[in-house]
Amino acid sequence: MALGPVMVDLQSTCMTDEDCQMLANPRVGGVILFSRNFESIEQLQNLVEAIHQIRSPRLIVAVDQEGGRVQRFREGFVDLPPLSLLGELYDESPDRALECAQATGWIMAAELRAIGIDISFSPILDLDYGVSTVIGDRAFHRQPETVAELAHAYIVGMRKAGMAATGKHFPGHGAVQADSHTDLPVDERPYVDMLNEDLLSFERLIHYDIAAIMMAHVIYSDVDTNPACFSQHWIADVLRTRLAFEGVVFSDDLSMAAAHCMGSYSDRAMAALQAGCDMVLVCNSIEGRKEILSNLSDYHNPVSHCRLIRMHGKPAPDWDKLHTSQEWDAALKLLSSYHRDPLLPMDI
Question: How far is Cα 188 from Cα 219, in angstroms, rounded to an integer?
Answer without folding.
Answer: 8
